[in-house]
User: Fold RsbT antagonist protein RsbS from Tropicimonas isoalkanivorans.
Amino acid sequence: MSGKSSIHLVENALLVSLHDDVTDTEIMDLQDTLSGRIAKEDVRGVVLDISALEIVDTFVGRVIAQIAGMSRLLAAETYVVGMRPAVAVTLVELGMYLPETRTALSLTHALSQLRRG
Assistant:
């Protein structure tokens, strides 16, 4: 993989950037690391940046839903930013429903929503 997915603390949220070539193993490791960081750092939100993803399969869609559910249980809201139109269409076509996930146009918008919450 050319670059690992990363987790950065921004204000009171964890910014998670997924790279287009993330493997199934790496995304599962990311999920485990993220849950530990949410609990340890007591953040208000998780911002999942998927702008690098050109396509999403059912596995990645399911992991996004799991990250959102896990975050919610740990008292953190999840925002997905950077979703391309093709990714949105694919998620709908796959029947993926992400009830615990909010969307925002940008990191700035997501952080603004978290500040209000």
About this structure: The mean pLDDT is 90. The two ends are 36 Å apart (CA to CA). Helices lie at 24-41, 58-73, 85-93, 107-116.
